[in-house]
Here is the input.
Amino acid sequence: MTLRVVFLPRADQDLAEHVEHIAHDNLDAALRLHEAVHRAVDRLADHPNIGVERTFAQTRLAGLRMWPVPDFTRYVIFYQAKPSAIVVVRVVHSARDVPGLLG
Here is the structure.
């Protein structure tokens, strides 16, 4: 069963910022990243538990999983698999302070 996909506003903003940053140097690569994130999220909707579960002290982050974007593995999708939806919480570059961003 394919779950619906919900991007939280911060995840939408993350993706837009990454695409804009890359587009300054390479528009084609920026468009490929955008498409790769959406393909990855579609895969998560079909297989919600394939991401690695992360543990954080905050209860609001319970069940948070991460999945690298294929072909752009330095970008990671953080999401929660809910009974009826995949909730994309953040899309971050792996060089960032992930605990600081999520905590």
Notes: The helical segments are 9-23, 27-46, 98-102.
